[in-house]
Design goal:
The complex is a heterodimer of chains A (285) and B (277). Chain A is mainly α. In chain A, 65% of the residues lie in helices and 1% in strands. Chain A is globular. Chain B has one domain. In chain B, 72% of the residues lie in helices and 1% in strands. Chain B starts with a helix and ends in an 8-residue tail after the last helix. The chains are: A mainly alpha (285), B mainly alpha (277). At the A-B interface, helix 2 and helix 10 of A face helix 3, helix 4 and helix 11 of B.
Chain lengths: 285, 277
């Protein structure tokens, strides 16, 4: 008997071409994300409250920026709308990740309950399954707010829409999303070492993204080095925006490294992920 | 059945039931002190950000909107410390109880629900408040240019105002959390609550900086009592009749919110819908 779900779950033979495998993975990934998103539609009231709440919370720091710049023309050599570009690009990356890769935040609970076993016996990469453990629909609100802020800011700073700026903006947004997704994995794989359900550590790590909503000029060297070389949050917003604005800065060249840094980040995350999964011992049942 | 089992001591030690709840919440917070501490340190990131931004802003000008740089540093630190007393976790506790249905325990207790929640929040606030105040004042005095209270009287009134501010935030969060009876989800409401407090209480920026109409709303809203009023008193920004007026407004709002909250929870209990169980 055949059950029609509109989707035929099949594994791709190992001798399938790289392209076919890739298409299969993308398809199943989108399926899994779609499945998670659909659970939100079940509670329609909650859906809207979540969206409004997420937008309000981000909006509150926008009010702060607006109020601050109503008294002072520039901070660290950056105007209101230039800072808004930083804010917008960070928020887009953050919101998109909440939709596409929020699963790592469920990792510790999954390990703690021994449910990670389930992921390991399925014929699909555990990393991909982890990404789709959950998808937070309110990320759409954050990303939409981010795009709104970014587009208004781009208009206010008289950004010329050329093929170059458009493609660089695309690079910025994609790299930013990948970087914050990597951070989500890195912050939460601590669960393989310390499988307690409640730890504020991952939250502390990922919360550092708040720093790069503002120009690095305002910080001391410790924070600048930290968000550049240790956890490269600054490549979500600050460095690529330097390039986008063609801003007169001695570190603008670093902006061109954004894709490279992103690739490096993916490599490090993948390596650490494999090491961590190897450590997994189950919880004994 | 042996007689000893049914013999009830004639005089049970009469301990205030609400104090018992304060005590148990306090012990719970102490038991999870590492979690509480990391949460507090994690949230201190905003102190770092605000400090960096204002330092850059004050690099060009001596005073902004009547604030000197040392005053602004004091504002940032106190605002954070006071606001942390009723933190995100206290709010989620109240909301989760309603969402997950453990509220039935509270419903069958022969106690006033508003009172039990106040007691639990107070227990948590004592631990979290002590930790975050000690940290902020420690950092403020050692690393930053934190100012002393304007005068001895100002420091006494500041403590009074912090107490009223604690009640204001508790009552506000309590009322918002009652909405979970209808929405059955909490996280969006908790964000909304945080956002409103961030702006209208003056957590992120003193309310004097807000754009015209929003500043007027913030000036008269109950939320200014949470952060803005106590910190203004500490800094000595209010004096004489103005000082009495802001404290009076704070007290009036506490009474009004209390009356509303006391009516609202009784109304909400009629709408209760426990999921599953």
């Amino acid at each position: 008997m055949e059950v029609t779900t509109g989707f035929r779950p099949r594994t791709v033979p190992s001798d399938a071409s790289r392209g076919a495998r890739m298409r299969f993975l993308i398809r199943i990934y989108l399926r899994l994300i779609g499945l998670q998103l659909r659970t939100f539609v079940e509670y329609r009231g909650d859906f809207w409250i979540g969206m409004v709440g997420a937008a309000l919370l981000q909006g509150s720091s926008l009010v702060f920026i607006g109020a601050l710049f109503s008294r002072i023309p520039t901070v660290g050599g950056w105007t209101l709308w230039e800072v808004a570009l930083l804010y917008g690009s960070t928020l887009i990356a953050y919101g998109t990740r909440e939709v596409l890769c929020d699963g790592p935040w469920m990792l510790r609970a999954t390990i703690n309950k021994g449910e990670f076993d389930r992921l390991l016996v399925r014929p699909l990469s555990p990393a991909l399954q982890t990404a789709t453990l959950v998808s937070s629909i309110h990320g759409i609100a954050n990303a939409a707010l981010g795009w709104t802020v970014l587009l208004i800011a781009a208009h206010r700073v008289d950004l010329a829409w050329t093929p170059w700026t458009v493609s660089w903006l695309a690079v910025t947004v994609i790299c930013g999303t990948v970087i914050v997704s990597c951070v989500a994995y890195l912050a939460n794989i601590i669960g393989f070492w310390e499988p307690g359900t409640s730890s504020a550590f991952p939250f502390m790590i990922s919360n550092l993204v708040e720093l790069v909503k503002f120009p690095l000029e305002i910080y001391g060297w410790l924070i600048r080095v930290g968000v550049t070389a240790v956890l490269p949050f600054a490549f979500i917003s600050y460095y690529p925006v330097l390039v986008l604005l063609d801003k007169d800065s001695s570190v603008r060249w670093a902006g061109y490294l954004t894709p490279l840094v992103t690739a490096l980040m993916v490599g490090v995350t993948a390596w650490l992920w494999r090491k961590s999964v190897d450590r997994y011992q189950g919880v004994g049942h | 059945m042996s007689a000893s089992l049914v013999s009830v001591p004639t005089r049970v030690r009469r301990r205030n039931k609400y104090l018992g709840l304060v005590d148990s919440a306090l012990q719970q917070a102490v038991a999870y002190r590492v979690l509480a501490l990391t949460g507090i340190v994690g949230n201190m990131l905003w102190i770092v950000i605000l400090f960096a931004i204002w330092r850059a802003a004050f690099a060009d000008s001596g005073t902004i909107e009547g604030f000197t740089w040392p005053q602004m540093q004091t504002y940032i630190l106190l605002a954070y410390g006071i606001n942390a007393m009723v933190g995100f976790s206290s709010a989620s506790k109240m909301m989760q109880a309603i969402r997950q249905g453990t509220i039935v325990i509270d419903m069958i207790r022969p106690l006033n629900y508003l009172g039990t929640q106040l007691a639990t929040t107070l227990g948590l606030a004592i631990v979290e408040g002590v930790i975050s105040f000690a940290l902020t004042i420690g950092i403020g005095v050692i690393f930053l240019d934190m100012q002393a209270p304007a005068s001895f009287w100002h420091s006494l009134l500041f403590l009074l105002s912090v107490g009223l501010g604690f009640l204001t935030k508790f009552l506000f969060v309590f009322c918002i959390s009652l909405l979970v009876f209808w929405t059955t989800s909490s996280v969006g409401l908790n964000w909304t609550q945080t956002a409103l407090v961030n702006v209208l209480a003056g957590v992120l920026i003193p309310i004097q900086f807000l754009p015209g109409w929003l500043a007027t709303v913030a000036e008269w809203s109950p939320l200014r009592g949470i952060v803005s009023t106590p910190v203004s008193v500490y800094l000595g920004r209010e004096d004489g009749i103005d000082l009495l007026l802001v404290l009076g407004l704070q007290a009036v709002w506490v009474i009004a919110l209390w009356c509303f909250a006391d009516w609202a929870w009784k109304r909400a209990f009629r709408a209760v819908e426990i999921q599953g169980g």
